[in-house]
Design a protein that fits this description.
globular, two-stranded antiparallel ribbon, alpha+beta, 7 helices
Length: 249
């Protein structure tokens, strides 16, 4: 499941966004929440939003998930710790940007408790395993977000990355894990592991999809003291304007 593929199918009529969202909720109902999900969006509300979303939006009808240390209004934020859980009264800035672009939130995903760990097994909600072999760890701390994308339960997911939490589970599940430069994606509405180092990470199947999500999600946020605006024309591949040799040790 990719953003580019879904957008193509929606435009050509091969499948509808409503059909996609219905199938995802059906699968979760059969497979169960644990260990990937901690909570789900209301199915009826998600389907109603899918049916009425503006198809011209860049992420119209695209299903996504967020790590459960990221606030979504009306849903509990647990950070992987039931006794810490609270009901969020506001939605994190980065999530608002994605839903404003038409993305459909499926639910909130499991994590190493308080986003501290790189294995994906430190959670009272269960331990995720690699999609390649259930005997092996999924990597963490953004375990549920990575596995949800790798299993095709959403097209992209948000995690957080302070010391590898967005890249380790991506590597262990065959995904792209993008850790943007600190400050380019707002961390307002996120339970911090280390506030000065935290980044929102992006899980996708392809680098092109990661770029699509990054472009929608970025932007200055006055409520985030570490937020900043990317320099005009700045990119992650300066070598594209000249000769570059890539070596594999």
């Amino acid at each position: 499941m990719t953003i580019a593929g879904l957008r193509r199918d929606y435009q050509t009529g091969q499948q509808t966004a409503t059909d996609v969202i219905e199938r995802i909720f059906d699968r979760i109902e059969v497979e169960g929440l644990s260990p990937i999900w901690i909570s789900l969006s209301d199915r009826a509300e998600a389907l109603e939003r899918t049916a009425t979303v503006d198809p011209s939006l860049p992420l119209a009808g695209i299903p996504f998930a967020v790590k459960d240390n990221i606030d979504v209004e009306g849903m509990a934020t647990t950070a992987g710790c039931p006794s810490f859980a609270y009901q969020a009264t506001r939605t994190a800035t980065v999530v608002n940007r994605l839903t404003d672009a038409g993305a459909i939130l499926i639910g909130k995903t499991n994590l190493d408790q308080f986003a501290t760990g790189l294995t994906g097994v430190r959670s009272p909600y269960g331990a995720c395993s690699s999609v390649f072999d259930e005997r092996y760890i999924s990597g963490g701390s953004s375990s549920g977000s990575a596995v949800a994308v790798a299993k095709g339960l959403c097209a992209f997911a948000l995690g957080t990355d302070t010391a590898g939490s967005g890249r380790v589970p991506a590597a262990f599940n065959g995904l792209v894990g993008l850790k943007p430069t600190r400050g380019l994606l707002s961390t307002t509405g996120i339970v911090p592991a280390c506030r000065s180092l935290d980044c929102v990470s992006i899980f996708t199947v392809s680098a092109a999809d990661a770029g699509t999500v990054w472009r929608v999600a970025q932007g200055f946020d006055a409520a985030d003291p570490y937020s900043r605006t990317a320099a005009a024309g700045a990119g992650a591949a300066p070598w594209l304007t000249g000769t570059f040799r890539f070596a594999v040790p």
